[in-house]
Amino acid sequence: MVSAHGPDLVIAGAARSGTSTLAAALREHPAIDPGATKEPNYFSRHYDRGTAWYDGLYADRSDGVLRMDASTSYTYPQFPEALDRLAEAAPAAQVVYVVREPIARAVSHYLLRRHTLQLEEASTFGTALAAGSYYTDVSDYRHWIPRLREHRDTQRLLVVPFPALIASSHEVATVICERLGLTPPPLAAEAVTAHRNAVVEFRGTFARRSVRALRNSPVYPRLRSAVGATRVRQIRSRIIKPAQLPTVEEALASCSDEQRNQLETFKADVERWVATHLAGQDAALGLTWSAHWPSPSG
């Protein structure tokens, strides 16, 4: 059965919202199996590799150990079938979705694709927006949260405001573990900091292309597991360098007046919608996370 291969905990997005930090905090728990790689992207990019490949990313099933999948691509518009596949494979999984101020998130996503991944041809954020709505689509939590709710109730979906995660990833991870019936995770600030996913540049074209080819290979997760996360970070540090990045304000300066007006309206509408959702979540689950999000009048 496909369901036997489904994850128990999913961090489904949003990209560039601290999901790597959260996954690093949770992977320290002895009852959480993080798999061979943080983002297997199975239900989106690699579904054709089959359940045997996905199952092989994790240790053999054992009582009390939960599998975690932290693939933010499950809430990318180019993979509209990903959440349906996830729901079919793991209808009872706890899903976590992190929301960040939508324009800052969109700019960060653009910078990652432009500088680190070099998948974005547009030289400015304004040019990228003129070419399509990808970055704001990923930031449109009014779309993604209802999509996530289609397949699970309030008890199985947790929306985390980015500022709460930045304030204390350990506290957020503790709430998630409680909802999974687990004890709090160990406090491992150094390990969590080491997994933060900064925007960087590769030192050469060969290094960038080699890393991309390796990461797209079906054997990459097992190779990463064999080498070890610490050794992988050491190797990566030798072939990357800090990127000279514009600030959010500088990136927005490349937008036309019309684009900026549209972004301001979009930001206000999305933040207002999320504020309402978080208030309802707080009331249902006994949380106080809406205090970390801008008020509807903010």
Give the topology, please.
Blueprint: E1 9-11, H1 19-27, E2 32-33, H2 50-55, E3 66-69, H3 82-89, E4 94-99, H4 102-116, H5 125-131, H6 134-138, H7 141-149, E5 157-161, H8 162-167, H9 169-179, H10 189-194, E6 200-202, H11 205-215, H12 220-227, H13 229-239, E7 240-242, H14 248-252, H15 257-285
Parallel strand pairs: 1-3, 1-4, 2-3, 4-5
Antiparallel strand pairs: 6-7
Helix pairs in contact: 1-9
Offer a quick outline of the entry.
The protein is of the alpha/beta class. The chain has helices at residues 19-27, 50-55, 82-89, 102-116, 125-131, 134-138, 141-149, 162-167, 169-179, 189-194, 205-215, 220-227, 229-239, 248-252, 257-285; strands at 9-11, 32-33, 66-69, 94-99, 157-161, 200-202, 240-242.
Strands of the biggest beta sheet: in what spatial order? 2-3-1-4-5
Helical residue percent band: 40-55%
The dominant shape is globular
**Into which percentage range does the β-strand content fall?**
5-15%
CATH topology: Rossmann fold
Number of helices: 15
Q: Regarding CATH, which class?
A: Alpha Beta
- Taking pLDDT < 50 over at least 5 consecutive residues as the criterion, the unreliable ranges are none
Beta-strand segment tally = 7
Please write the string of helix (H) and strand (E) elements. EHEHEHEHHHHEHHHEHHHEHH
Termini distance?
Answer: 48 Å
The name of the CATH architecture is 3-Layer(aba) Sandwich
